[in-house]
Design a protein that fits this description.
The complex is a heterodimer. Chain A has nine helices and ten strands. Chain A is α/β, with parallel strands linked by helices. A six-stranded mixed sheet of chain A has the order 6-7-8-3-9-10, sandwiched between helices. In chain A, helix 6 links the parallel strand 7 and strand 8. Chain B is an alpha/beta fold. In chain B, the strands form two sheets. Chain B has an eight-stranded mixed sheet with strand order 6-7-8-3-9-10-12-11, sandwiched between helices. The longest helix of chain B is centred in the middle third of the chain and has 18 residues. Chain B is globular, with a radius of gyration of 21 Å. The chains are: A alpha/beta, B alpha/beta. Chains A and B meet through helix 5, helix 6, helix 7, helix 8 and helix 9 of A and helix 8, helix 9 and helix 11 of B.
């Protein structure tokens, strides 16, 4: 079976401004040889510190930037060789939710228009259905973003991603700007939508507890490379790479449920 | 232990577009030298407002009631010039976003030296030497070279170290840290919290740590105040608050956090409804509309502080039912 998303040896470097006329411009290798696959309806968590390349990866998967090496295949189709027209059509299949629900919604547009934006033609019925799916009211379509709280705005952003009925949603730190009790509501919503519509998530986060909660697979990034990847239960219970251990060490003890006897992953004799 | 700070019945009224709002509705707590106290709660609960009131930095037109006694001196209604003498001298402050709190046009050496020049009337040379010592103290790598760096040349964690160095310059008796690590990475977060803990232990100053993050609080403060709707709804030793979760809001807040190893795909318990706007606060318990244990009496008048255990109380009249 063709995986929904296949990332092959993806690389991206950025050229910085020249520091001197006599030397070549310095180059930052933001991503280096990143490969993974994501099956339809599954969730992959990408964790790592800031600057590890998580958001660059998201932008390449969303075809917002071109990679300098490697390929991104969506249902077997290389996104970065598509014509602009074909890419525009393909975009219905993958959508994005951003971190900041205050910065990612146009304050001058009504919610109905924001949510309908990815559609080719306006479809009020579909807008209502989508608002309903994320727990907002149909009457909310006539309001402006400032009339909503942070959690509700993130619901609007999710509705906008959902309206094209995508197979994949790339979510870049979708919870970190939200209050604790609201995080739980949005996390539950994302889970419900996955069950209901079979959406796959590429979930970028620095919060291991949230990733553990939502994602069956996880990839740990450091300095533009994936240093450890695999089933979340294995990677987070029996980490191999020092970077994974450092991330786990940073989780406060209170936020960890100790593994019960018999549930550890140590190999049985 | 000698009492350093005693806040009692602190009220703050703000003028908003929707009329006056009671941002704080009677906040009381005490803090002794060397003690660490945490204020936790969600946006709009009044935790930052409490910090601003302590520092005399409330927005224009705010009306303050109640009392804040710091080293025996009443701060409510204190003249601004006198308050300026305390701020940055006896009371150090660290804010959430070091990039906005630091001046981008001045070197960090100059910014760390500023409170020394202001309060200690130190000469430029002496202040610079002291700034270098402080940078070393906050474990800034290559402190001597960094003294003449500008804020944009540093990483987020390093900028926060600069903020802490400036807050420590005059050896304050109280350090107020408002979300000091929220803008930082998990691993850097821990380094900065370790640094603050180390400095508090070494200098014997008191710490008021403000965060929305319960996980941060768990290991960092001796006593925890949980705030909601401008009131302290639970107040007790941190471990006891985490264990007992006496107030329904504390219970909801702690339950809503996903925990590592809790199992995949389970629904997280959530608190129904949403955080109240301060202008809409009801006459009774501010949490009543979101509480599953609510009874009519809850909506009549603000609930009094009920004892839960030693030095532990919660503002809920249904403590017996909340289990």
């Amino acid at each position: 079976m063709t995986p929904l998303l296949q990332v092959e040896q993806l690389g991206k470097h950025y050229r910085l401004p020249r520091e001197s006329l006599w030397r070549p411009a310095p180059v930052v290798q933001a991503l280096h040889d990143v490969s993974f696959t994501l099956q339809a309806g599954q969730s992959l968590g990408i964790v790592g510190e800031s600057g590890s390349g998580k958001s660059t990866l998201a932008r390449l998967v969303m075809a917002l930037e071109r990679p300098t090496a490697g390929r991104v295949l969506m249902n077997g189709q290389d996104l970065h060789v598509l014509s602009p027209q074909a890419l525009r059509e393909a975009r219905a299949g993958f959508q994005m939710v951003f971190q900041d629900p205050y910065g990612s919604l146009d304050p001058r547009q009504r919610v109905g228009r924001i949510v309908a934006e990815p559609l080719v033609s306006a479809d009020p019925q579909r807008v209502n259905e989508t608002l309903d799916a994320v727990g907002l009211r149909a009457s909310d379509a006539d309001k402006y973003p400032h009339e909503f709280s942070g959690g509700q705005r993130q619901r609007i952003a999710i509705a906008r991603a959902l309206i094209t009925r995508p197979q994949l949603i790339v979510a870049d730190e979708p919870l970190s700007a939200l209050d604790v009790s609201v995080q739980a509501q949005v996390l539950n919503l994302m889970q419900d939508l996955q069950q209901q519509f079979g959406i796959a998530y590429l979930f970028i986060s620095h919060d291991l507890a949230v990733v553990d909660h939502l994602c069956g697979e996880v990839a740990v990034m450091q300095a533009g490379r994936i240093v450890e990847a695999g089933p979340t239960d294995r990677v987070l219970r029996a980490p191999v790479h020092a970077c994974t251990r450092a991330l786990l060490d940073a989780v406060p003890a209170h936020a960890v449920i100790p593994a019960k006897a018999g549930m550890t992953l140590e190999s049985s004799p | 232990m000698t009492e350093l700070l005693a806040v009692s019945g602190l009220r703050v009224r703000l003028n908003t577009a929707r009329g006056t709002a009671e941002a704080l509705r009677g906040v009381s707590f005490t803090l002794a030298r060397g003690e660490t106290l945490g204020l936790v709660g969600e946006s709009g609960c009044g935790k930052s407002m409490t910090a601003l009131a302590l520092m005399g930095l409330l927005p224009l037109g705010a009306q303050t009631g109640g009392s804040i006694r710091f080293q025996g001196r009443e701060l409510v209604g204190l003249d601004d010039a006198v308050m300026c003498g305390l701020r940055g001298d006896r009371i150090g402050m660290v804010f959430q976003e070091p990039m906005t709190a630091l001046n981008p046009l001045h070197t960090i050496g100059r910014q760390i030296a500023e409170p020394l020049r202001q309060h200690r009337e130190m000469g430029a040379q002496a202040a610079r030497a002291e700034a270098l010592r402080l940078l070393d103290r906050v474990h800034m790598p290559q402190a001597a070279q960094r003294l003449d760096a500008y804020p944009h040349q540093l990483s987020g964690g390093q900028r926060q170290r600069v903020m802490i160095a400036a807050a420590l310059a005059c050896g304050p008796d109280l350090l107020i840290a408002d979300e000091p690590t929220t803008a930082l990475d998990m691993t850097i977060q821990r380094e900065i919290l370790d640094l603050i803990a180390e400095l508090v232990t070494d200098s014997g100053m008191a710490l008021l740590l403000i965060s929305h993050n319960l996980d941060v609080m768990a290991q960092r403060v001796q006593r925890l105040l949980v705030m909601y709707g401008g009131t302290v709804v639970e107040d007790g030793p941190t471990e006891r608050v985490f264990e007992r979760r006496a107030h329904p809001y504390t219970r909801g807040l702690l339950g809503a956090r996903p925990r590592l190893g809790a199992g995949r795909g389970l629904r997280l318990p959530t608190i129904p409804g949403r955080v109240l706007e301060l202008a809409d606060l009801p006459a009774g318990c501010p949490f009543a509309d979101r509480c599953e244990w609510v009874v009519d009496a809850c909506r009549q008048s603000p609930p009094p502080a009920m004892p839960v255990g030693p030095a532990h109380e919660a503002r809920c009249i249904r403590l017996d039912a909340v289990t």
